[in-house]
Structure formats: C-alpha cells, structure tokens
Amino acid sequence: MTPADPAAPRDHPDEARAAASPSAAARIPAGVSAGGRAVTDREIDQDIPYGVRIAASWSWRLGLIILMAGALVWLLSRVSFLLIPVMVAALLAGLLAPVKNWLRRNRVPNGLAVAITVLGFLGVVGAALALVGRQLVAGFAELWSEALTGIQKIQVWLADGPLHLSAAQIDQYLKEGTEALQNNSSSILSGALSFGSTAGHFAAGMILALFILIFFLLEGERIWTFLVRLLPRKARAAADGAGRVGWTSMVSYVRIQMVVAFVDAVGIGVGAAIIGVPLALPLGVLVFLGSFIPIVGALVTGAVAVLLALVANGWVNALIMLGIVLLVQQLESHILQPLVMGKAVSLHPVAVILAVAAGSYLAGIPGALFSVPILAVANSSIRYIAGRTWEHESAPAAWGHQDTSDPASGAENP
Does residue 124 contact residue 118 with C-beta atoms inside 8 Å? Predict the structure, then answer.
C-alpha cells in the first residue's frame, strides 16, 4: 500500500461531501460558496457584465434627477402666484439697474435714485399704453366698417358662388348659431367670470412685482448676501459666483432681446404703415411684446400682421405684408441674433425651441416667456460650478470659503 504524499492538498470534508453528492449543490443557500464561505458583494458584482453595471448606475441617478426635477416643478407650480412676480421683478431690475447706478454715480441718494428710476419707467409705460389705446380706438372704427363690408362680400359670394345658398338658408344657419350660443350661455358666463378672476390676479401680481422691484433696486446686494450666508461656509463662494454669473447672463439676454424686439417692431410697424395697413402702431407694440417669446412670438405676431392686412386691404397687400415680415425676421435671425445674442448667451437654437415648447406646455405663457432666461441662467451657473472657477477668484472674506482650520486643534478661524 503506497503512503500518501504529504505535499498533496487534502480535501475539506464539506467539499468532499459536496463533490460526492450531486444534489448537495442545490441545497447550498444563495450567497454561500460550496465550502460554506459567504460570497461578498464585490464578487457578485464581478459576475455582472460591465455594461449592465454602468447602465444600472446611470439609470438610478438619472431617475432620481428626473424625480426631483418633477417634484420641484410641481412645488413651484403651487406658488406660481408668488414666483411669477418675483421673476418679473428680477427681469425689470436687470433692465433698470444701469439707470439707477448712473444716478448713484452722479451723487443721487440711493432711495431717491430708485424712486426716479421706477417712476420714470412707469411714466414711459403709461405714455406708451395711452398712445396705443388712442390708436386702437381710432383704428377699430375704420376697421369695423371694413369688416362689415367684407361680411357683405362673403354673403354675396355664398349666394352667387358655387354653393348657391339662398337668403333663407343663410338666415337659418345664423339662427342655429344664435341658438347654440344661447344654449351654451352658462359656459360662456363661467368663462367670462374666469377671465375676470384672471385679470384680478394679473393686477395683483403686477402690484406685487412692482413692490419687489423697488426692494431689488434698493438693496438687492443685501438680499443676495443674506441668501448666500444661509448656505454652509464651504459652499458660499461657489454659490455666490454661480449666482452672479447666472444673473449676468440673464440680464444680458433680456437687454439684447429688447434690442432685437425693438428692431422687429420698428421694421414690421414701419412696413405696415408704408403699405397702408391700419393699426400700424399697435401692431408694432404687439410685435415688440411678442418678440420676448423666442421663435413662437415672432410667428404669432407675424401671422396677426398678415391677417390684418388681408382683412383691411386684400390678398395682394397681405402678400406684401408677408414679405416684409419674412424679411425683417430673416435679418433678425441671420444678422442680429448671431452677432449679439450668441455672445451674450451660449444657447443653441434647438435648445431655445425645446425650452420654449417645454415651458409653454408646463406653464403656458409665463413658461414660454421665462424658459429661455432660466435656461441661460442654468447654463452659465452649471458651467461655472463644473469648471470650479471660484477657486481662482477672490471671493469676499465674509463667505469664509477657505478652510483655515488647524488639524491639530480642530478649531476653525472665523
């Protein structure tokens, strides 16, 4: 009988039994090796393909971001009656801050400079609205008579045209339409009441925005400093720098958008006046306001201009008006936008149209109006934080962003 080799490995009794019994492996609990040793999570991860692990890591992180973004949008929608006035006041503060700063440089007291700036702004807006109102009152009378003439032409075409409708049939259709309006009077009344409530909310929001605007101009720096000091000490420098960069981007966008809107309004308004389209001045004001909603506003106001020319002067005049609108918008999109807007806000046109579409879907007109400024602020702030730019800038000493703690004592200097 040959003695066993002492160098040869000896089988563990448990492993020998597992090898001897084929059904023993089925009785081994999950996560336990054949020798009874617990399998670690790292060893389990090694059995999962690398692509699956990467996809899983991205999935839960992206899902958490989408969930938190949706929760944030929902929460903000609950306080939109407060959020919208604050955003309007911020935009107006960015526009009016240079006027107030110029007064301050000329040794005007801060409170008086704010009062002059706000009252001057309200005076300009009130004068513009009064002028436009007078033009609308004078122009609608003429336009109404032209609309009646157009209706009469439509009635003649219905009778003598290919439809050959008699006067009795037209009267019957009008009667049915009147009855339909009477049957839906309750819904029309509720819609009118809803419009009145919306108008009341709009007026209250404008008063609130004016109140916030005064304090943004009066002590905006103190308000921002207070908000930053609520953050942890190490995060103050980054938050302050990101906020200031985002604010600069938003103000630059709004100011340049005003220039673009003014060029659009002057071009379309003057063109409408030259070819004899009525209400040219109110049309220019409408184009100016609509231009603050990128892409969508230009399309809507251009369609209104063409429709107004069609109703007032016929299809030839409408085609000329369409050419003027297209020419002005092409000059804006191919000359003004690349030269000035691209330097102020680094946003691709695809990002702009997607932001406007998403904003209008989520929040209607306010969403379409504020979506691009919000995207511009987010773009600049994220780039600032990702580049860790604050580490190479001199931040106010009050932020205490540098860690001056003594490792030996554990104390931190203020």
Answer: no
